[in-house]
Amino acid sequence: MIDATKKDFNRSFDMTDLGLMHYCLGLEVWQKENHIFVSQLKYTKTTLKKFRMMDYTPIATPME
Question: In what residue span(s) does the Reverse transcriptase Ty1/copia-type domain sit (predicted)?
Answer without folding.
Answer: 1-64
